[in-house]
Amino acid sequence: MSSETASDDSTVSVIVVGGGPAGLNAALFTAKDGIKTTVFDTDETWMHKAHLFNYLGIGSVGGSEFMATARQQVDDLGADRRQGERVTDVEETADGFAVETEDGEYEADYVVLATGANRELAEALGCEFTDEGVVDVGVDMETSVAGAYATGAMVRPEEWQAAIAVGDGAAAALNILSDVRGEHFHDFDVPADASRVFGELVAE
Ligand SMILES: Cc1cc2nc3c(=O)[nH]c(=O)nc-3n(C[C@H](O)[C@H](O)[C@H](O)COP(=O)(O)OP(=O)(O)OC[C@H]3O[C@@H](n4cnc5c(N)ncnc54)[C@H](O)[C@@H]3O)c2cc1C
Q: In angstroms, rounded to a whole number, what is the distance separating the alpha carbons of residues 87 and 89?
């Protein structure tokens, strides 16, 4: 199914924990394709220390500048980004996940963990780890807890790169969308989709 024919999945919800490259790219896809998406982030992304010369398609960009553009993009596509709200616990419930933050309690059908190299929430949730001490996921980024995904630095011992984190987020989101739709989902757009997707934000 292409995004052009995507149905409204606004009754389905995902909570993304962590708003670095991995978490924001997961949020971009789920929000763009109609899933109610909430992102909690404490703004300690490593990107603030980085300058990218190795991100395909971008010659050179400061890490904080990259994050500012990414945040604007997920906001424009409809994600609810709760900047500065730390998640303190994630638990499985009968029909999804309960997420506790410093400010409140939330529920969602799916959860995407994207807390960088900090794996504490994955451990608390009961996700299996590999012998190397990272969260065990496959190429779809789903953990051993059904409906819970782990992305970015937490799933690799090293070899940490922004492009890899971004790819992890996309893989998790597409797997969630495929699960929701009951068939493999493609977020494919063509030039004629520009005004539908971006509305008045579309570039000339
Ligand atoms: C000095 C330095 C230079 C680098 N240079 C490059 C480079 O040139 N090119 C490149 O590709 N990569 C570079 N990297 C690596 C790149 O920054 C990482 O690969 C990337 O940031 C990992 O993305 P992530 O989303 O997994 O985690 P992060 O970017 O670390 O994001 C995790 C986010 O989760 C938030 N968070 C954590 N716990 C919670 C919680 N409980 N509740 C809510 N939010 C939470 C954090 O505040 C953070 O914002 C560099 C890294 C460093 C340190």
A: 6
Number of the ligand 1 atom closest to the C-alpha atom of 22: 25
pTM here? 0.95
**Best of 42, 47, 54 for a ligand 1 pocket test (most atoms within 8 Å of beta carbon):** 47
Q: Is residue 170 within 8 Å of residue 26, measured between CB atoms?
A: yes
User: Cα of 47 to ligand 1 centre, how many Å?
Assistant: 5
Tens of pLDDT, residue by residue over 73-96, are: 999 999 999 999 999 999 999 999
Q: Which residues, at least 6 apart from 119, have a Cβ–Cβ distance to it below 8 Å?
A: 129, 133, 134, 135, 154
> Can you list the domains of the chain with their CATH numbers?
8-201 (3.50.50.60)
